[in-house]
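Example 5.3 — DUF8040 domain-containing protein
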Amino acid sequence: MPPKLTPKKQKEMAAAIVVTVLCYINYGIAVYTSPYYAKVQYHNSALSGHAWLQELLLGHPDRIHMELGVRHHVFWALCLELRLFGAEDTPHITLEESLAIFLYLIRTGLSVHHVGERFQHTGTTISISFSPFFLHPHFITVG
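Solution (predicted structure tokens):
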């Protein structure tokens, strides 16, 4: 049987327990709120979407087909056709990268969030980058 604690020792133990609980609460609050005050860049891969596309275009011919579902010559022909129809680069994304985003999205079926992670852009930028393919009157076919 443990020895009986004096009232002074009981108060010291209770105070130690309270301090420990307060430390855990403080730690929990710090961990929970840290994303709000300690900003960490989300898209920080060494390989940007443009760099990844360049790697596909300059790499093994089968790799671009595996990732985007088209061969080199088809990719460049699509880029040329889009430019002939008036599609242009945006301030943040080239037409080639927009096309790659569109092809990657339909090839993989991934969410905009996952495609954004691959191309190192926000979901909003990804959505805006391929919307011209759906909204431009020349790209809409009726039949």
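Remark. The two ends are 89 Å apart (CA to CA).
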